Amino acid sequence: MRSIVIHYNEIALKGRNRPYFMSRLVRNIRQATADAGVSFVRVLNGRFEVELAPDADLDVVRDRLSRVFGIGNFARAGRSGVDLEQLGRDIIDGLNLPGGREPASFRIAARRADKRHGMTSMDIERTLGAMVQAAKGWKVDLGNPEMTIRVEMLGTETFYSFGNEQGAGGLPTGVSGRVACLLSGGIDSPVAAWRMMRRGCRAYFIHFHSYPVLSRASQEKASELARLLTTWQLHSRLYLVPFADIQQKALMTVDPALRVVIYRRLMFRIAEQIARRVRAQALVTGEVVGQVASQTLENMTVIDAAASLPVLRPLIGMDKDEIVEAAKTLGTYPISIIPDQDCCTLFTPKHPATSTSIEQIEQAERGLDADALVEAAIAAAAVEDFKFPMIGLRTRESEGAERGNGAPRATEPGGVQGPPPEKT
C-alpha cells in the first residue's frame, strides 16, 4: 500500500473557483512533504493521490498531511483495477499485513466516481464483503463496525483503504489573502493567528518588545511561536518591533490611566504600516471582550480608530478555558506559558481606564509625535523568516549571499521590506 488518498471538504463548494483552490492545495501538499519521501501528488476525480517512495517515512508523511489546511481526511491506500475478483484478493492481502489487531466486525463502504460501471455501489459492497467474510471470518456490522474498508472506484482503477485520519480542514493557505497578526507571546494571539490561517489567510507576525529595558525573553518566545505556526502555513515572516522608546516618551506626557489605550493605538498604527508594506488586508489580534482593561467595547472602539484597516478578532467571544484548550491542542501552550517580561506590563498603571472616548485619547496624544514614533519603530524593526520543511531562520544574509546582493541579516534592525516571494 504505497498511496495516500486525500479528500477535501469545503473546496467542493467553490464552483468555478474550485480549480484555483485545488491547485493551491496540491502545491501546499507538495511543499509540506517535499523531504518526506513522496514520489508525486496527482489530482484524481474529487480527491488527490500521494504516492510514497519505497523509503518514505509514513509517520512523517501523515504528520505533515495533518497540518495542511484544506484537507478534510486522508488514508493510506492500495491501488487495484476494477475487476472485483482481483480487487477482493488485493484487499484481503492488505488485511493480512503483520502486526495489526484483527477487528471483530467490519463493513465495506464503496463509492463509484464513474457511474458507468456495471455494478452499483451496494452490489460492490455485497460482493467484496462476502469475499472478506469468507477469508477472515469477521462479522459484518453496517451500523457500528470496528473497521470500515473504503473502496473508491475511479474509471480504470480502484483505491482501497482501512479507516481514515482527520485533516486540518479549512481552506488552503494563501487563497484568502494576507493578514498581519499581532503576536504577543501569550496564550491568545497564536490561537487567533492559527484560526485565520485555517481560513486560508497567510499570516505575517508582528511582535512588540521592550528590549533593552526588558530581557529578550519575549522575542525568543515570539520566534518559537512563529516557528511552530510555520509548520501549518509553510513559510512565515516575523517582525520584532522595539517599543520601549515609545513607552518611555508616553510616560512623560500621558495620564497613567490612559497609557494602555495609547500604547495599543500606537501598536495598531505601526502594525498597519507593516501590513500595507506586505500587502496584508487586515490586522488580527487575540483580544477577547472584557478580558483586560484595554479589551472593553469602549476601549476597543477607540483603539480601532487608530487604524484604517479592518481589525479581526477570531477569539472575541471565547472564554479563557476554551482558548487554553485550543492552545494545548495546537501545541503553542507550553511556549506561551514560559515566563517572560512582556512590554504590555511595562509602565502600566494599577488602575487603567476601562472606558475612554476618542476625544479624550486624541487630546492625550497631542503631546506625542505619533508619526515620528511610528516611523522610528518600523525603521528599527528586525525581521526573521521561517520555512517548513527544514524549518528554521533563513537570514537575509544567507539569501543575499546566494543572490550576491549583500542583503543584511534578518535578525538585525533593517526596517520593513516587502513580502517574501510566493513559493511555486
Quickly describe the structure.
By secondary structure, the chain is of the alpha/beta class.
Give a verbal description of the structure.
This protein is α/β, with parallel strands linked by helices and 424 residues long. It is built from 14 helices and 16 strands. The protein has helices at residues 18-32, 58-65, 84-95, 121-136, 188-198, 217-233, 244-253, 259-277, 297-304, 320-330, 333-336, 358-365, 370-379, 396-403, and strands spanning 3-8, 38-43, 48-52, 71-80, 105-112, 139-140, 147-154, 157-162, 165-166, 178-182, 202-209, 235-242, 283-284, 311-312, 382-387, 392-393. The strands form two sheets. Strands 1, 2, 3, 4, 5, 6, 7, 8 and 9 form a nine-stranded mixed sheet that branches. Helix 5 runs parallel beside helix 6 and helix 8 (259-277) packs across helix 9. The longest helix has 19 residues, at 259-277. It is elongated, with a radius of gyration of 26 Å.
> What composes the largest sheet?
9 strands, mixed
**How would you spell out the order of helices and strands?**
EHEEHEHEHEEEEEHEHEHHEHEHHHHEEH
Sheet-strand content, in percent, reads 15-25%
Helix tally equals 14
- The whole-number mean of residue pLDDT values reads 88
> What coarse outline follows from CA principal-axis ratios?
elongated
Helix content: 25-40%
Oligomer: single chain
User: What is the count of β-strands?
Assistant: 16
Distance between the terminal alpha carbons, to the nearest Å?
A: 29 Å
Helix-strand makeup class: alpha/beta
* Residue runs with pLDDT of under 50 for 5 or more positions: 391-410
Tell me the Rg in angstroms: 26 Å
